[in-house]
Specification:
heterodimer, A: alpha+beta, 3 domains, B: 125 residues, Rossmann fold, globular
């Protein structure tokens, strides 16, 4: 898994080592100065100590070199802990040597500086793993042994004691060896104790670190899954969903490529989305489940991780197209099931360009990811099925309505001719019956017309057939068509529209239908002698159409349902049987198609006001803005 | 003109509609010519040179009516042409009525008075 870890990461144990190495170098400045100051004091006290000066200077000198190396290592990016560990070893060894020289010069085994070996053992235990600490301790002990002899070299009279001596061991047989063994035993014991404490601390720190890393990884994984879920659920377009899934899966697992195969109804496993695969590879042929063990295994619900596609035996039995895989440069593969609610949809495959490109973390993550993707795919499929069902329903309604309208038109035409005397005189009772048949026939034709308008509106949803239109011009035309009807019923029809060219982008047929439905409704449900007013206003961003009448109004309880298909309010039914209950449903559909809004204010007996707002498109803003009435049609 | 009567060519694939047009036109002193297909309509047009043409917008196929009008217009720019349209026919956006010289569109079922007044007006001008 290659999930990004939080910033400031790195391994705390390594950080600890790096910090300690720096601290050790700082401490050494003091040690070097202490040697120089101590030497001066010793000389002041009359001791023979001049030989110690060069050692102090040497300590400071090699510390300068160590500090430089340390700084150089710090400036290098992405340096592993290894160089610092070597630096730690080097420091300890240099210190052992310096200490041994100092000790040799100040009395060998009898020198008070012998105690400082213990300090170095503790430092080694802090800095290094136990085995390396014991190795350093052994180095120190060997140096002490050499130094024990060294005192003899510097002081040929073996019995002479250094003025610095705090104990007397030289001069007696066996005493030196005995003392040396005691010191060695003590240093080993010290090394074991210190390193076991340090190891325990390190182990605890490692546990903490693991917990922190795990937490960080989980967090990163959650964040990533969230991102993926968002990008997948942003759209319900199946092709887009699949393409995103393929890309994201490849990106997250740092795979060379990804393919998504979805089970078809006939049991095949075609690639329906791919990322990073060549055309040649995709054209290699259908996957036959009987011959593709890797897909078959995954479809049983288990992820399949193939670390090396080319490994002997594996390729031949697992893959249907091992040669094509090799030609594509694919060396490793991970295949996980796509499953939504226990239903197997297909598989997601990610392909690596190197062997062992995927680890168990990838397997786990891709499984989570695939279940998320499966949900996205299932949702998109459900939507597609619903859209298809809706389309089929619309097509059915369209066919029925089309088939109805021709015979209906012929029947009504014949009835009209008979009623108008083209076929001879009509007895009064026959006339009445024929008039009723004609009336019912007209209602049926209106229903066919409304159904066609409704399915056309539905089919037009999402279509981008938009031409610049003037709502005002369409309103004037519709009002003109209704003027005679309004006049016959003494209804005052007022049209108030601004001057100006096209003021929105829309679908002409639909907008004509919308205005016609609203205006004819207003006239139909307004008692004789009433008022109907239609108004168009434009602003920078919207065009507003208001149709107001002094009609029967809509009862409050019916207002919520008024835009439902086939709904008619009770008072409307009582007033007239002319109405299919589709008019306002069509209006609502058309408003939606134009991304508009529709609002209705109504009170029974007082009238209705319908306000439609369309977002403004087309040629610029301001035109016709605030213009006064340019056309007023009044009938009555 | 035939026996002093104005000749009106009616083209519609619905025989009932044609029969209605015949009744209305004959009763009002016109000489109707009836055709059930665009092809036979064009043949009649070429043979009889009618004074006026009424064409159903949608016949055997979607463009049959309009294609017939285009072919007539290619031969004669003057003869008045009317269209018959059924509920649900999408009139807008399919053709430019003024470019094709269409005088008007009658919605089916045909209202005799509207048909007669429009035809009379077109033949007068």
């Amino acid at each position: 898994m290659k999930l990004p870890l939080p910033a400031g990461g790195g391994v705390p144990l390594d950080n600890e080592l790096i910090a300690r190495v720096g601290w050790f170098i700082h401490l050494r400045w003091l040690a070097g100065l202490a040697v120089l100051v101590g030497t001066t004091a010793a000389i002041g006290l009359g001791m023979e100590a001049v030989a110690l000066y060069p050692v102090g200077v040497a300590i400071l000198a090699y510390n300068v070199a160590l500090a430089r190396v340390n700084r150089w290592l710090s400036t290098r990016k992405g340096t592993a802990a290894e160089p610092w560990r070597l630096l730690a070893h080097l420091q300890i060894i240099l210190d052992w040597v310096a200490l041994s020289v100092l000790t040799t010069l100040t009395g060998g085994l009898e020198s008070p500086l012998l105690l400082l070996y213990t300090l170095h053992v503790i430092l080694a235990a802090i800095l290094l793993p136990r085995r390396e600490c014991l190795a350093q301790t052994t180095t120190g002990i060997l140096l002490i042994a050499a130094m024990a002899q060294g005192w003899g070299v510097f002081q040929p009279a073996a019995l002479a004691h250094s003025p610095f001596a705090v104990v007397h061991v030289y001069g007696e047989d066996g005493q030196v060896l005995y003392y040396l063994l005691s010191v060695a035993g003590m240093l080993y014991l010290c090394a074991l104790l210190a390193s076991s404490v340090a190891e325990r601390l390190r182990a605890r720190e490692r546990e903490l670190l693991d917990a922190r890393n795990h937490e960080a990884r989980m967090y990163a994984e959650m964040a990533l899954l969230h991102e993926l879920a968002k990008s997948i659920t942003e759209t319900l377009d199946l092709d887009v969903v699949l393409q995103r899934v393929a890309e994201q899966a490849a990106r997250v697992t740092q795979a060379r490529a990804c393919s998504i195969r979805v089970l078809s109804e006939s049991g095949e496993l075609p690639v329906i989305a791919a990322y990073g695969l060549s055309e040649a590879y995709l054209r290699k042929g259908q996957v036959d489940l009987a011959r593709s063990l890797v897909d078959r295994k995954a479809l049983l619900g288990e992820p399949v991780l193939v670390e090396d596609v080319a490994a002997a035996g594996e390729g031949a039995s697992l893959f249907q197209y091992p040669e094509e895989l090799a030609r594509e440069g694919i060396r490793s593969l991970l295949c996980v099931p796509l499953r939504a609610q226990e239903r197997m949809l297909g598989v997601v495959r990610v392909y690596g360009a190197q062997p062992k490109a995927f680890d168990p973390e990838d397997v786990r993550f891709l499984q989570h990811f695939a279940s998320l993707a499966a949900i996205g795919i299932r949702n998109a499929r459900t939507l597609r099925a619903l859209q298809e069902a809706d389309r089929e329903r619309s097509q059915f309604v369209r066919t029925v309505a089309h088939e109805l309208r021709s015979p209906l038109a012929a029947i009504l035409g014949n009835l009209r001719l008979i009623l108008q005397g083209y076929a001879g005189a009509v007895p009064e009772q026959t006339r009445q019956l024929l008039e009723r048949a004609h009336h019912r026939g007209e209602l049926l034709l209106a229903l066919a017309s409304d159904l066609l308008a409704l399915v056309s509106g539905r089919e037009a949803a999402g279509q981008a057939i938009r031409e610049p239109l003037s709502l005002a011009a369409l309103v004037c035309q519709a009002a003109g068509d209704l003027a005679a009807q309004a006049r016959a019923r003494a209804i005052t029809l007022t049209v108030d529209v601004p001057e100006g060219p096209a003021d929105l982008l829309g679908h002409r047929d639909q907008l004509v239908r919308l205005i016609d439905n609203l205006l004819s409704n207003a006239v139909k449900y307004t008692p004789d002698g009433g008022n109907v007013a239609v108004r168009v206003r434009t602003s920078d961003h919207a065009v507003e159409l208001v149709v107001e009448d002094s009609g029967i109004g809509i009862p409050r309880e019916d207002q919520e349902r008024i835009f439902e298909e086939f709904f008619r309010s009770e008072n409307a039914r009582q007033l007239t049987d002319q109405g299919t209950g589709l008019g306002l449903a069509i209006v609502k559909r058309i408003v939606d198609n134009h991304r508009g809004t529709i609002a209705l204010e109504s009170a029974p007996g007082q009238g209705t006001r319908v306000t439609v707002m369309f977002p403004r498109g087309g040629n610029g803003s301001g035109e016709g803005n605030g213009a006064g009435p340019a056309a007023t049609v009044t009938a009555g | 003109m035939e026996n002093g009567k104005r000749v009106v060519l009616c083209v519609d694939d619905d025989r009932d509609i044609l029969e209605q047009l015949r009744l209305i036109l004959e009763a009002n002193g016109f000489a109707p010519l009836l055709a059930e297909t665009a092809q036979s309509g064009l043949a009649l047009y070429q043979r009889q040179a009618p004074d006026l043409v009424v064409v159903d917008l949608m016949m055997e196929d979607l463009d049959a009516g309009l294609n017939l009008v285009r072919q007539i217009r290619a031969r004669n720019r003057e003869v008045p042409v009317f269209l018959l349209s059924s509920v649900g026919d999408q009139l807008y956006g399919q053709f430019d009525a003024s470019e094709l010289g269409i005088q008007g569109v009658f919605q089916k079922p045909v209202e005799p008075d509207r048909l007669l007044s429009a035809l009379t007006l077109a033949l007068q001008s």
